[in-house]
Amino acid sequence: MRADTKNTVDELLNVAERLFARHGVENVPLTRIVGSSGQRNRSAPHYHFGSRAGLLAAVLDRRLRHINALRHAMLDVTAPTGSNLANAVRGMVTPLCRVVLTEPWGSDYVSIRGQVTFHPRALGETVVDDANLSSVRRCKQLVEEALPQIPLEILNLRVRWLTDSIVIAVARWSRSKSKARTREAMDNLIEEIVAYGVAGLAAPLRPIATALPRRSPQVRAVAR
Questions:
Q1: Is the pLDDT of residue 202 over 80?
Q2: SS3 assignment for 77-134
Q3: Smallest Cα–Cα separation from 36: which of 59, 18, 55?
Q4: Within a domain: 57
């Protein structure tokens, strides 16, 4: 990619991220993003990203790469200790909390993630880069190994609900007007979410759910 093209793309992403976070993903006209980024070509977002949803996916992907790397690094330390359910949940939530404290874009990113969680239609048929979700799949694999007694159909639902809850909880915390956004407060938030997540994932099955097939080790391997 040419240097001038990269600069244009980076500026569009920076402006879009800032405006999406502050005014809402669905409330910001592309023309405002173009104008605020100093571009004269009104079709620049479509040229570089294909569509509004493509621009939104690119905004998320750029930060997901960093978060994905953080999560893998964390799992490299905790995963060898065994299939620990708490470590899996901690791996889901910790990188999101950390970027809020350590990265200038952290709060904007989790705000946008929260909006997309509430309004998935904002992405339309566009999806983020699957490679940037590899650490999430790794966490899910640890969850599956820790809870072989939970049918995969039920466990997939619980993981999805927990993931949504994590995003909303961290987004709400990052927007708090209190002065409690410290490392200590972050650690407390993480551990509360871990306790909540472990309890929810491992909750007893309802009678109707006990009729669903259990997973053998072979079935779990295929499910991954």
A1: yes
A2: HHHHHCCCHHHHHHHHHHHHHHHHHHCCCHHHHHHHHHHHHHCHHHHCCCCCCHHHHH
A3: 18
A4: no
Q: Whole-prediction pTM value?
A: 0.85
Residues 103-128, buried b or exposed e (16+ Cβ, 10 A)?
eebbbbbbbbbbbbbeeeebbeebeb
1-5, 182-186, 191-195: least confidently modelled range:
1-5
Q: Would you call 40 helix, strand, or coil by DSSP?
A: coil
Q: How is residue 55 written in tokens? A: 């621009």
Residue 78 and residue 4 share a domain: no
Least confident of 82-96, 131-145, 155-169, 191-205: 82-96
Question: How do residues 113-165 score in pLDDT, each as one tens digit?
Answer: 999 998 888 888 778 899 999 999 999 999 999 999 999 999 999 999 999 99
User: Can you read off the two tokens belonging to residue 100?
Assistant: 């809020």
Identify whether 81 is part of a domain.
yes
- pLDDT at res. 221: 41
Contact 13, 57 (CB under 8 A): no
Distance between CA atoms of 31 and 36, rounded to whole angstroms? 9
Pair (94, 190) in one structural domain: yes
- Identify whether the C-beta of residue 96 lies closer than 8 Å to the C-beta of residue 70: no
- C-alpha pair distances (Å), 69 with each of 65, 92, 133: 6, 12, 10
Q: CA-to-CA distance for 154 and 192, rounded, in angstroms?
A: 23
Q: Average pLDDT, stretch 100-104?
A: 94
